[in-house]
Amino acid sequence: MGEVKVLSYKYLVGAANVGWKSNSYTGSLSLNPERHNAADEEFKYRTFLNEKEVDGEKSFVVCAQCFVGNQSFDAVDEEKIQSLEFDGNDDGVEKARQWLQSAYESVMKERTQL
């Protein structure tokens, strides 16, 4: 079974602390590893930061999103995308990775039961 990989919180922050954009990380895992081709559906995921304002102070949250398909995030219908937010730190990035891994494993389990 595949493993979800994400990059560090420091990578995601990028230049956001100085008024520029933050970075995102996008990945995909095959749902048919033994016979994968470009037309197959994949488990697609990404992590990025959203800026939040709490008590007048700006901070970041780590966002994780995933869906099953062969389209890009920009092309897929939003209702197909699962999303969850986590604390804006390295622990939040790890929790996002764990959530994405669990989502991938659930999809693989469903597919093997068909």
Per DSSP, the total helix count is 2
Could you list the spans in which at least 5 consecutive residues all have pLDDT below 50?
none
- Tell me the Rg in angstroms: 15 Å
Q: How many domains make up the 3D coordinates?
A: 1
How many strand elements? 4
Can you tell me about this structure?
The chain is of the alpha+beta class and 114 residues long. The protein has one domain. It is built from 2 helices and 4 strands, in the order H-E-E-E-E-H. A 4-stranded antiparallel β-sheet has the order 1-2-3-4. Strand 2 and strand 3 form a beta hairpin. It is elongated and about 50 Å long.
Helix and strand layout, with pairings?
Layout: H1 9-13, E1 25-30, E2 42-54, E3 57-69, E4 82-87, H2 90-113
Antiparallel strand pairs: 1-2, 2-3, 3-4
Q: Quick summary of this structure?
A:
25% of the residues lie in helices and 33% in strands. The protein is an alpha+beta fold and 114 residues long.
Question: Can you give keywords for this protein?
Answer:
114 residues; alpha+beta; 4-stranded antiparallel beta sheet; 4 strands; 25% helix; 33% strand; elongated
